[in-house]
Amino acid sequence: MQAKYKPKILVVNDDTASLFALSGLLTTWADENQCSVVTAKSGEDALRHVLQDDFAVILLDVNMPGMDGFETAEAIHKRARSSSIPIIFITAFLADDLNKLRAYQQGAVDYLFTPIIPQVLQAKVSVFVSLAKKNLELKAQTEALGLRTQDLQAVNDKLQREIKERKIAVEQNEAKDKFLAMLGHELRNPLSAITSAASIIGFPGAKTDSVERAKKILSRQSQHLTRIVDDLLDLGRVMSGKIVLDKTAVSLGEVVMSCLDSLRASRPVDSYQWTIDPIDTWIDADPTRAEQIVTNLLDNAIKYTPAGGTITIRNAHSDGKVSLMISDSGIGIAKDLLPRIFNVFVQGEHSLDRAKGGLGIGLALVKQLVELHGGDILAYSEGENLGSTFSIVLPEARQGKLSPEHNEVRKLETTRKLLLIEDNEDAREMTTQLLKAHGFQVIEAATGAEGIILAKSEKPCIALIDIGLPGMDGYEVARRLRSDKDTRSMYLIALTGYGLREDQRLTMEAGFDSHFVKPFRLQQLLLTIESLQVA
Questions:
Q1: 204 neighbors 333 (Cβ within 8 angstroms)
Q2: For residue 449, is pLDDT > 50?
């Protein structure tokens, strides 16, 4: 028996000699039987011991001054924790039947009369000590079982976590595989169309109308590829916190109409019945991201609504918030899918045949961008084939006006000579052909060093400079051109695959005047150049 579970015997007697004699009779026996003896000289002292410890049995003198044995027993058994402790009364006087009855009513289990026979005392006490040992052993086993149960519960919890983590890992792996398969599909489709269109254009016997259709296909599918790449990059950037908004007052009505015009080039916009409420509200937003949000929502409505269906655009504003609701009469959203509609790579079963297309990242990107603006987005649908509604809420802004610096345009009076520094041969050749087709005299350079030499000798008024040049990058080219008195007045346009605010800051610090993200829109580039009033 461990010391922690060693039974105790309490001996209570006000007479010092009697107390010594009783405890002495039990001490040697107690040591041999792995229990201990505790003494008390009064009823009050006995109660203090009972409050602190548990006892196998109490040997209690009946005749004590102050609180006698009966009163002490009554007080001990009134307390729930000590109510079951067996008490053996000890007295030097013969007890009559009434005293015995009173003793038993107070919880006594026996009576002993002095002088006490040691063997009788030890025999009576041993019964209760043995019972206490069994109870203590049972308590120890229960505690051990409890600890074992806790260990098993901890192991089970760990196992459940591992099962859950493994399930999540499997689901993520499956989602990744599905996504890669979808990405391959989404890239191959436009690439196939582009390849075919390029073949038709290059075919000597191609008819004029076929060539014109091929050109439109090239333009449309190139824009589609650009949107795929932009969505992929932007989703990664926004989820890693790398997108910084450049917010200003933006006309929501202009954003909606601009997005519809952009979609018209690649989607059958005019095949639907449109109901568009007048939108005269302004939002506090990043203009580029606002267009991205609305374009994705409109594209989603078009994608999942059969031709001839209805798409409704409504808006409202109150309490400094602007709401835009886009509803459609399309295939709707299943109830089990609705709570997950904004998760990355989530699409409905309708997309399994890939008829609707898409990577399942558009709505996830929209949610991230809306929340980045401090707004909110909700999706609602009565169910499959019952249409759906997407509602976004963004901060309201006052109608904005361009500040004076935005109205100022740098003016250049010179020839239409333009320097293009681009190391990618195909990109350089195509950009040169497009610019020449619009009346520019283009000087080409494949490296930064070559570009600087041509800039000093040919003195073009504008330079289009790729940032990712080998050896000397575009930033260094711009810095050197700005530091040379012969080229410092040249208008410098950065061409780069990076469009974050930080990237724009770096180009401006290097000395560039404009920043265009590849693949850039030729029309925007031409408008920028024409605004310089080049003769």
A1: no
A2: yes
